[in-house]
Amino acid sequence: MEQPIKVLIASHKRADRITTHEKVANSIICIPESQLGEYRERCPDTEIVTHPDSVIGLSWKRQWMMEHFGDAFHLDDDLAFMKRIYTETGEADKLSPEEIYDVIQMTARTAKRMGVYLWGFNTCGKPFTYNALQPLQMSGYVNTCAFGLFTGSKLFFRPEQRYQEDYWISGLNAYYNRKILRDNRFYFHFNDTWTGAGGLAEFRNMQTLEATLHDLQNIFGKDVVKVRKLGTKNHPYQMNFSVPF
User: Fold this and answer.
1) Average pLDDT over the chain, rounded to whole?
2) What's the whole-model pTM score?
3) 3-state SS, residue 176
4) How far, in Å, CA of 141 to CA of 89, rounded?
5) For residue 37, what is the enclosing H or E element?
6) DSSP-H helix ranges across 87-164
7) Dihedral angle at the C-alpha atoms of 230, 204, 51, 144, nearest 10 degrees?
8) How confident is the model at residue 64 (pLDDT cuts 50, 70, 90)?
């Protein structure tokens, strides 16, 4: 059996609202050094690793975590649940903390054996969108709310990009490595991506989102990073990711 990979939770100024450590067994919280006291008080039974306070912004934090831990699965801190999408009517779909951990490890082993560096899970939790004839997907986009990354990928996060780093890393991976692994049988649902305080909330605004969209389009092309035509309830700069393979 291969060694299990680390399951990491990136958090910032959310000691009173973090939920992921309760939802996923054997997870590790990663926070700035100065916030250790409040997180230790709120999460006494969870392993906590700190990074220097000079590491500011989620992309920079992800880069630090990647360099510090190596092979790992990364999660946002506001997980509500993980569910199976392929269940029958009336069948329970929510997974226990131990089951979530096991699914992560199982998917990590599969990705490693396939030679995939970037991997994750379904980005939509609606069962009617699930294609039972395509439970696994090998190209496209991985949401960095919940993603796995192996060393040797040539991938990196840009500290200057404080938002939409999942489009950056998916585009970079498509350029260097071509393939991903996305297990569409499972879906992570997070609580307050747009309404919660802390985390990215102190950086997110319309000017940042618009600038990020144009930046990504300049790098990868407008045919790869597109403006979403439907479902833009949060803001007019929501994106779609498309590659021709």
Assistant:
1) 91
2) 0.90
3) helix
4) 29
5) helix 36-42
6) 97-114
7) 0
8) very high
